[in-house]
Amino acid sequence: MQDDENISEVKIKDQKIIDNKELNIYEALVPVVILMGLLAYNIFFAGGEMLGEYSNQYILLIGGLVAFIDGMVNKVTPIVMLKEIWENLKSVFIPIMILFLVGALAGTWLISGVIPAMVYYGLQVLSPEIFLPASVIIAAVISIATGSSWTTSATVGIALVGIGTALGINPGMIAGAVISGAYFGDKMSPLSDTTNLAPAMAGTDLFTHIKYMAFTTVPTIIVTLIVFGIISATIEPTGNADISNLLASIDNTFNITPWLFLVPAAVIILILLKAKPLFALASGVILAAIFAIIFQPEVLKSLSDSNFSAISNSIITDTSIATDNEKLNDLFSSGGMKGMMWTIFLIVCAMVFGGIMDGIGALARITKALLSVATTVFGLFASTVISCLGLNTIASDQYLAIVIPGKMFKKAFEDKGLAPENLSRTLEDSGTVTSVLIPWNTCGAYQSGVLGVGVAEYFFYAIFNWLSPFTTLLFAAFRIKIRMLRGK
Description:
By secondary structure, this protein is mostly helical. It has 25 helices and two strands. The protein has a two-stranded antiparallel sheet with strand order 1-2. The two termini are 36 Å apart.
């Protein structure tokens, strides 16, 4: 997920749950209802343009203002709310820097020929009949190895979207396959921060958590692969017959060589060696710039009279490389760091809203309300799932969607005689994987920004992500692999 290896420890030690006894459940829900209503109107009736290009961002700020007034009425000082906003903004500093570097990476990998080379060789290896399930598997392997769905999307994810688009496959399908595989790998990797965070909050150990999580995660990914296999067998990609022309166009525009794969390989190796993500991505940008000078002098010359100007423009602003194929012209374009500003603004606004909601005690109040109705074992699991989904939506942060329910429900699971791995598994099945399905959540904003595919486009095809909560509830309903505490 968010790629700071220390972030889980910080969250565990410093995350406080603010409880405000002055605030009742109805008051806590007022900002949520207004936010959801405005977002629904913007999406379904205003075409996403109710307040212009940044409608979702402004709506989040409006929701934050309503929550701020709510807090003032309920005796919460502005200082407390502003402090929580600041804490939220600090927590996304590294992800924002990563987003800037991903924008720079996309630009330099384009002008250096790295992305065109991935597309060139990928078109020859990945046929449309196996493309989608293969994308799931490739993303899963990389994510298990790196422990990061974010790194997976920023490397092989971008390439797979490019290859699939050239084959004429729906970008939403491709992004859904990549995200499904990436989040499966992220959940099952001991290197993942959320995979370490969930058992820490529930009170179990890492490998017990991973082993127990496999009971729900493996069947879910198998179903995902089967569905993508069926989709791949039934779709009729429009680009299949044009592959030879696409290959020729890429070859005529770029100097394609296997040596270009040293750049993404270096980034992945650095991640595997546990280098800081910012360092690994920055290294990828610098290496790509060097490779652009070595392998793509004609491309750089077509973009600017100066190599330095061409490279710096690819890092900071829009870059577009013209070929003799219109489909490739759309593919071989990048927004650089500038292209990430919409996503970054969305994350900042989401953190403002989530910070105020936390500061006034609304998040704790809503979670407590869910806990109060959990009278049965299944009701307890269902309340945990709903709490995680709700916090991913309201707080816009997957860590809060793990930390708050983890703390609030831990004793309830113990009282029911349930082993802590039940809670840790449920936190991951519903908190970790669904974060990417919320457009204004940090994960949803990141994935849609990096892959260039809107959440609404890939939502249905992110099969693993929306199926996981249903799987965990199915296991709970039929008491499948529900481990009890000894003596209970």
